[in-house]
Amino acid sequence: MLDLKTVAERLARPESEVMQESLRAYLLREIGLIESALQRYRERYNVFAPSELRSLIEAGNVAGHPAWEDYLEWQNGVDAIADLHSLLLLEASNA
User: Fold this and answer.
1) Cβ neighbours, 10 Å, residue 45
2) Of 17, 21, 15, nearest in space to 3 by CA
């Protein structure tokens, strides 16, 4: 089984450094996965932000279903990305 100690020893680096870099890589990967998922909304509705989709829905330019659900998922994704970025900033400020 792969563990922190084994990786750190093999790389001849401190465990804490390997852990920090691993966490950073994980957060960046998660951001990328969420961004990929959100891209489908940009393409589907030809807008760049959830607020633009909301405006289209409210103006009646797109059908409310499933656009409202898409809007909520998109906004939740944006919020999740912001939260992950705040963790990255926290990590950077502690470095």
Assistant:
1) 19
2) 15
**Residues in CB range of 52: below 8 A, 6 or more apart:** 45
Sign of CA dihedral 32, 34, 38, 40: positive
Using CA atoms, how far apart are residues 15 and 8, in angstroms rounded to an integer? 5
**What distance in Å separates the CA atoms of residue 22 and residue 8, rounded to the nearest whole number?**
11
pLDDT of 27 reads: 97
What pTM, to 2 d.p., does this model score?
0.87
3-state secondary structure (DSSP) of residue 48: coil
Reply yes or no: is the peptide bond before residue 66 cis, omega within 30 of 0: yes
Mean pLDDT in residue range 43-49: 97
